[in-house]
Amino acid sequence: MNDMPCEPDAATWGALLRASRIHENTELGEKAAEMIFRLEPWNAGMYVLRSNLYAASGRWRDVSKMRLKMRDTCVRKMSGYSRVEVQNQIHLFSVGDIMHLDSKRIYAFLEELELLMKREGYVSATKLIMHDVDEEEKAHMLKYHSEIGPA
Q1: Residues 68 and 109 both lie in one domain
Q2: Which is an annotated Pfam family here (predicted)?
Q3: Are 117 and 139 in contact (CB under 8 A)?
Q4: Region 1-15: what's the mean pLDDT?
Q5: Which of 73-77, 80-84, 98-102, 136-140 is the least confident region?
Q6: Distance CA 119, CA 25 (A)
């Protein structure tokens, strides 16, 4: 990064932060995050990435500090959702959504799908869940949420 012909921007530092998370290099990730926060202190995604970097290392106290920093600087992460088109009608879903008219059928289908997948050898990638909860809870979280990022 020091030898680039131009000054690295927040996107470049963000790529380094993501790579640091993937390659479990917390020290480098912290340096990249600090540069991002200087350039874009409002960038919620980078706070979450840094928090995930800490969580992957089991540094739960630092995860809590990042959440407090987000709160103290009034930075908020937008909730994600999925969009599915069925017979020319668009349906929106977010994690834990029970407002859809067919939510009971949808969740029942997901349960059936999970059973079929497990029979074929599927194992939840629980290491991708960045919360300090037991493995069973992590597997449950993965069942209904697809925003897990790279392994």
Answers
A1: no
A2: E_motif
A3: no
A4: 89
A5: 136-140
A6: 35
pTM (two decimals)? 0.60
Q: Exposed/middle/buried for 61, CB within 10 Å: 0-12, 13-18, 19+?
A: exposed
Buried b (16+ CB within 10 A) or exposed e, 88-118: eeeeebeeeeeeeeeeeebeeeeeeebeeee
Residue 18 has pLDDT above 80, yes or no: yes
Is residue 148 situated within a structural domain? no
Structure token digits, residue 62? 């630092």
Average pLDDT score over the chain: 82
Nearest to 77 by CA among 105, 100, 45, 46: 45
Which of 50-54, 120-124, 145-149 is predicted least confidently?
145-149
Compute the distance between CA of residue 63 and CA of residue 60 in angstroms, rounded to an integer: 5
CATH number of the domain that residue 22 is part of: 1.25.40
- Is the pLDDT at 148 greater than 50? The verdict is no
Number of domains in the chain: 2
Instruction: Tell which residue, 99, 113, 102, has the closest CA to residue 146.
Output: 113
Q: Which helix (H) or strand (E) holds 51?
A: helix 44-56
